[in-house]
Amino acid sequence: MRPADVLCIRIDKEMLIRERLTRINDAYPDAFTEARGRGFIHGLACRDTETAKVITRRCFEAGLIIETAGARDEVIKLIPALNISEAVLTEGLDLLEQTTATLLNK
Q: Any idea what the CATH number is for the domain that residue 93 is in?
């Protein structure tokens, strides 16, 4: 594989992360303030710490390696491996989205 091909794959995955987190952010404006990040490091800024903690804990219990960040642990942080397959990345983003929907659609 040529270096240019690797870069294109990386950019495609970065765009996938950005698009999915933006979709989650936009679906729950009462819970999130923004989706942000650069490269493979992205996060969802929550309006309150408890939202970030609950979503992160449930995702982790379901097998997604995820954590909080930010001055008050109010950001749900994703840092997938650079060599993650698109299928596994999509599976993790699906889990985050489904968990968020389950917890916030009560």
A: 3.90.1150.10
Instruction: Tell me the whole-structure pTM to 2 decimals.
Output: 0.90
Residues comprising the chain, all counted: 106
Paired tokens of 35? 């989706």
Q: CA 45 to CA 25: how far, in whole Å?
A: 8
Alpha carbon distances (Å) from 62 to 9, 18, 98, 99:
27, 22, 11, 9
Q: C-alpha 56: how far from its chain's center?
A: 10
Cβ–Cβ < 8 Å for 47, 33: yes
The full DSSP string for 75-99 is: EEEE---TT--HHHHHHHHHHHHHH
Averaged pLDDT, 47-76: 96
Q: Residue 91: which domain range?
A: 3-104
Number of domains into which the chain is organized: 1
